[in-house]
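[audit] Reproducing an earlier prediction to check determinism. Same input, same settings, fresh worker. If the tokens differ from the archived copy the diff job will pick it up downstream; this log only records the rerun itself.
[audit] input (108 residues):
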Amino acid sequence: MSKFSLKKFVKKEQKCLPNGRAGNLLASVKEEASLAISSTLLATGMSITKQTANDFSSEVMEVSTSDEVLNELSEKVGTPLESETEGEFVQRASSALKNILMSKLGNK
């Protein structure tokens, strides 16, 4: 089995970007995802304030991109299985990430 992990892939992709773009790109992606999470929370009709939704979505993004979560996700998901399609691998990784985030943020 390959020693290439999700975390190594993410770090490699960030290094391939021109000077400073990795940090800017990651910040931009985090901001977009955070806004999407916040908008989804507010659209559900839950009785939460916009500030609470924004704070929670920012925390989700920080936790989900932390080294700790990337390491745990890499360990759980590993590499694509021999007969697994890209879509199946993404679904398996998404499910694992959801479970990790639920365990880390479920007590909040």
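[audit] rerun output stored. Observation attached for the diff report: The helical segments are 6-15, 21-43, 50-64, 67-77, 86-105.
[audit] end
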